[in-house]
Specification:
This protein is mainly alpha-helical. It is built from 8 helices and no strands. The chain has helices at residues 2-20, 22-44, 49-68, 72-92, 99-104, 114-141, 144-173, 176-182.
């Protein structure tokens, strides 16, 4: 359910683009992002940091897109978001506990070494930088329609493949006794 609600603004953006074009799609995205924040507040009593950041960028770059009637702003928004994520992960990379360890550490055994967490952190930094660059390449090399398709289907597919890769990396790092109990 959470995955659906997180992707709902992107799906609505895609549908609105196909029916009415980029500017209506941008308006729909802004409204959907605000509604998602409202729903999170109503449902959980708090708004996730990622939702705050993403909505703020949607408001800024979506607003610029509508004000200047220039779709370049909404096209670069994903790259800005990915670079922010990469920057945050990079900033915590050499700390005692990288951000990924703080986020995922409670779900995995405490016996995993720091080198594992730093490697995992590096993979995510690389993924976000790659996503930022790839988004810009598609945004500036292809039509808006192709970019919209890529935004939904291409990045979603790449993300799923990357998450599966991460699952393999994590499963290989688990101690043997944990692997045996899962069988």
């Amino acid at each position: 359910m959470k995955l659906l609600t997180d992707f709902l603004p992107i799906i609505l953006f895609f549908v609105a683009y196909k029916i009415h074009g980029i500017y209506t799609a941008t308006e729909v995205l802004i409204v959907a992002a605000i509604l998602l924040m409202t729903w999170q507040w109503w449902r959980r009593g708090r708004i996730e940091t990622m939702t705050w950041v993403s909505t703020l960028l949607i408001l800024i770059f979506g607003g610029l897109t509508l004000y200047f009637h220039n779709d370049t702003f909404i096209k670069i928004k994903p790259s800005i978001l990915y670079l922010l994520f990469a920057g945050v992960l990079f900033f915590t990379h050499w700390r005692e506990q990288p951000l990924l360890e703080r986020l995922m550490g409670a779900q995995l055994p405490a016996t995993l070494p720091q080198s594992f967490w730093r490697r995992l952190n590096t993979y995510w930094i690389t993924f976000f930088v790659f996503g930022a660059v790839l988004n810009l390449v598609v945004a500036y090399s292809f039509s808006t329609g192709i970019w919209v398709d890529f935004k939904l289907f291409g990045m979603l597919g790449i993300t799923i493949i990357f998450v599966l890769f991460q699952a393999v990396v994590i499963s290989r790092a688990l101690p043997q006794e944990i692997k045996d109990t899962d069988s």
